[in-house]
Amino acid sequence: MGKIKGVEFNDAYEYFLKNAGNTGMEKVKAALAPAVRESLFSKGSILAVEWYDYAAYVNFVFTAVKILGNNQPDFLYNMAVYQAQKLYNGPWKLFFKILSPSFVIKKAAQFWRLSYDSGDVTILICTKDHVSFKVTNFPDIPKDHELEQIPFFEELMRVSNCREPHATHPKCIARGDDCCLFHLDWKNG
Ligand SMILES: [Zn+2]
Q1: How many CA atoms lie within 13 A of 70 on its CB side?
Q2: Taking the alpha carbons of 13, 62, 114, 189 in that order, is the dihedral positive or negative?
């Protein structure tokens, strides 16, 4: 089972808590299947260095978006923006300011294994306004996972001074393809 690092889960949890408070969060937890709730919340607090089941995490995120945000795409999008902002405002801030966007995006893709315990990233194309990469060896990656990853990458492009950031996910292991393929495009300046 593929897993996600607790720090990402904690950022998502924090975003939903800021928006809906404890009452809203209790509603979300109550709506989860017992096995999902158990795998994510059995330890009480979310531990940043712990690994959590990725499918359970995605299920939690989609449930929270449905219950707290009426399934509004912006509500989900802004959650991933919040995660990217936490990263941007952390120790990497200078890194984003001084390096070229293509380098930042390429590195972010290569750092996949800091956030997930599964998946091997291969950079396919890297130019001044485009990065393509594929992820293999993540057999149980959940369907629609890109909905919480595309906004993250688009926000990283934004803070790296890219204009009109745009990410697509034309191939997906969860849809039967041999890899998860991401294309990231932007305009410089
Ligand atoms: Zn995919």
Answers
A1: 0
A2: negative
97, 145 Cβ separation under 8 angstroms: no
Span from the CA of 138 to the centroid of ligand 1 (angstroms): 9
CA 38 to centroid of ligand 1, rounded, Å: 25
Q: In the predicted model, is pLDDT for residue 101 greater than 90?
A: no
Q: From the CA of 178, how far away is ligand 1's center (Å)? A: 10
CATH number of 101-188, picked from 3.30.450.20, 3.40.50.2300, 3.30.1380.20, 3.20.20.70: 3.30.1380.20
Percent of the chain with pLDDT over 90: 79
* Distance of alpha carbon 117 from alpha carbon 120, whole angstroms: 10
Taking only the tens place, the pLDDT of each residue in 132-187 is 999 999 999 999 999 999 999 999 899 888 999 999 999 999 999 999 999 999 99
Q: From the CA of 48, how far away is ligand 1's center (Å)?
A: 24
